[in-house]
Specification:
The protein is an alpha+beta fold and 331 residues long. It contains 7 helices and 21 strands. The strands form 5 sheets. Strands 1, 12, 13, 14, 15, 16, 20 and 21 form an 8-stranded mixed β-sheet that branches. Strand 13 and strand 14 form a beta hairpin. Helix 1 packs across helix 3, helix 1 packs across helix 5 and helix 5 packs parallel to helix 6. It starts with 14 loop residues before the first strand and ends with a helix.
Length: 331
């Protein structure tokens, strides 16, 4: 399957906004740009899959404008577009699959997808030789580092933006996730996020974090927040074939009021911050940058994916927004 950016069809033409030069803000990076971006050069790493326990060779490549983000299983010669409608499993990570070959799957994509979103990367080909991305240290920070090293290149193409025009909400008991129009006025694509969690484990408890997504805020506030697990669930997970590569080197493990990692936590509210990283990655599967506000309580990969499906199922709740390049405006 060709990895070409596809947006849900609309009867109406996209709204075109011509931004002023003031729309470019130093330090915000390409995540709030009106132009598409890709990598300047290829870069790779080797790691272990947290669930499979298998060694994974991963390489990130530049891609042409309009290509979108896609994952290529080099061991299967199959390419899978990173889109919400290709998600097939959300139990312990976000897993996408080739719609024409269900066994061609790629899991644990959310940390890399979050780093792509934070850096404003619209187009890239991700090659790997197994069923899941390497967990690395359990956070998005190593992927952000890879993108820093590869560099980001602006492309001569307008960036597709999805503006949320009406609230959309999905629930699961006390848990919910919602996308709503952005409050106030913004001259550039902006995604605001607010995530809260509530766990019985005293080491976690109730936490929340908010973020206005751009490269600097993602790096400073949430990129280093690690995935986490409850100690009492690990044996059951491993018996079911999961967490084969999990360790204290790539996850926070909590036992009641105790964090078992010798070095403790990296930051306050690390658990909520990591849930926010997951949300950024999951929402990036919209196939275009989102302009709106995300609010969620006790959300997970499943609810995040349901939210995107609900958004695109209702054309009254979104519209595609594009803009001419800043160079054209300046001219």
């Amino acid at each position: 399957m060709d990895a070409v950016t596809r947006l849900p069809s609309r009867a109406a033409s996209p709204m075109v906004i011509e931004p002023s030069a003031a729309s470019v803000v130093a330090g915000h990076g390409a995540s709030q740009s009106w132009r598409q971006h890709t990598l300047k050069s290829s870069i790779g790493c080797v790691g272990v899959g947290v669930h499979s326990g298998r060694r994974v060779v991963l390489t990130l490549h530049p891609a042409a404008a309009g290509h979108g983000i896609a994952f290529r299983r080099t061991d299967l010669s199959r390419t899978i577009a990173a889109r919400y409608d290709n998600v097939v499993d959300t139990r312990l990570s976000t897993v996408i699959a080739d719609p024409d070959w269900a066994s061609a799957r790629v899991g644990m994509i959310e940390h890399l997808m979050a780093a792509f979103a934070a850096k404003g990367v619209d187009n890239a080909l991700v090659e790997l030789d197994g069923p899941e991305l390497p967990i690395l240290d359990g956070s998005a920070a190593p992927y952000l580092f890879l993108l820093d090293c590869a560099g980001i290149a602006e492309q001569d193409a307008a960036r597709p933006i999805i503006e949320v025009t009406r609230p959309v909400r999905v629930t699961d008991g006390a848990a919910f996730a919602e996308l709503a129009p952005l409050r106030g006025h913004a001259m550039r694509p902006t995604l605001e996020l607010e995530v809260s969690i509530d766990f019985a484990a005293a080491a976690i408890g109730q936490q929340s974090h908010t973020l206005r997504l751009n490269t600097d805020s993602f790096r400073a506030e949430v990129a280093r927040a690690r995935t986490f697990a409850l100690a009492q669930e690990i044996e059951q997970l491993r018996a079911a074939g999961f967490a084969q590569g999990g360790s204290l080197d790539n996850a926070i493990v909590v036992d009641g009021a105790t964090v078992l990692n010798p070095d403790g936590l990296r930051m306050d509210s690390e658990f909520a911050r990591h849930k926010l990283v997951d949300a950024v990655g999951d929402l990036s599967l919209a196939g275009a940058a989102l302009h709106g506000r995300f609010v969620a309580h006790r959300t997970g990969h499943g609810l995040n994916n349901r939210l995107l499906r609900a958004l695109f199922a209702n054309p009254a709740c979104w519209r595609q927004v594009t803009a001419r390049s800043f160079d054209a405006v300046a001219a």
